[in-house]
Amino acid sequence: MNTSAKAKSGISWAWFHKLGSPKWFYGISGRLVPWLSVAAALLIGIGVVWGLAFAPPDYQQGNSFRIIYIHVPSAMLAQSCYVMLAVCGVVGLVWKMKMADVALQCAAPIGAWMTALALVTGAIWGKPTWGSWWVWDARLTSMLILLFLYFGLIALGNAITNRDSAAKACAVLAIVGVVNIPIIKYSVQWWSTLHQGATFSLTEKPAMPAEMWLPLLFTALGFYCFFGAVLLLRMRLEVLKRESRASWVKEEVLKSLGHVSSQPTSRKGAGQ
Amino acid sequence: MNPLRKKRLLIIVAILAGVGIAVTLALSALQENINLFYTPTQIASGEAPHDTRIRAGGMVEKGSLQRSADSLDVTFVVTDFNKSVTITYRGILPDLFREGQGIVALGKLNADGVVVADEVLAKHDEKYMPPEVTKALKDTGALKESIQSAPGASQPAKQG
User: Fold this and answer.
1) What pTM was computed for the model?
2) Structural domain boundaries of chain A?
3) CB contact under 8 A, A199 and B128
4) N or C, which end of chain B has less CB nearby within 10 Å?
């Protein structure tokens, strides 16, 4: 498919073009999923227990600040996931890579759940500390728009029956919607909001002591691993569905059915 | 990268830049409406409309809180270290409400320049500390400095 480009740009792009091969993806993701799952379970487990039971309470908010250990990771992931969707959109539109659309369609519902989780935990946190479940400030509103963007992507992907047109439409929506991400990120600095600034950033020291931010680091990394594992599982299923006519899929399905049922029905799993 | 892909990439970048500029212009035009609250300086200079529901935000001035003896009425002064505005409120204040803390009050600005609030929200900053640390800081007298300078002075001033 991409032979001319492969020859021109040499070996450095080989991995990138390999990603476009469903069979290669299916093989490598099968090996990654167990590692990611174990890492996610360990990191989230340690982080949540540490954060909820052992980290010190806040001097002003007491124990109610502990919801940060779910709120911040889910909000970070919700935004990163959308950036990933936009990158997938670019790859899908420019390089016409089918796997990019698979990734986009499979990641959108996870991102929507993470956004919803961030909004719900934020509301639960807001009631005791601010005195209100919901305020129409810039951060909260832009986050709500992100949720609607996710809903739009999911709806658009399912509304168009032609797979290629759906992929194109979703890619464009994902790319245009990415404008919202810097707005979410900097809303607390550009406008006066009720929401406080970022506690965590890559460049500065966290505005909390180590015994408070270390559990947060654990849960944040754990959420990313969880996202990776769930995304790969969903993509593997989607790949099997889309490539159901390919011979390697029939072999894979037969192999996995092998120790479940010994009936040699080749149609059973390979169909829809 | 072959020419066709380069062209597609350029189109995408152009679309993204266009949408970005459009959104930037729209947001800067809506600047006033997006800000959650008016700062005391804005209220003092007459930017806030009278007799409609507005939000006023700032730091509660030290020693300004007065509670009524026989009702839930409270009066306090909110400042951004430049101008200040008096707020009256009847009701239960949120747990985080205290002097030296940022708040947002929802209510009407009357002719005397007093905000009659029907809702008070407490704003907290992004700094979290264990109570022991606060106690240690308080003992050495460092906390007063940090509270005065960190969330208070920086936020309303920056956002105003």
Assistant:
1) 0.81
2) 32-55+68-239
3) yes
4) N
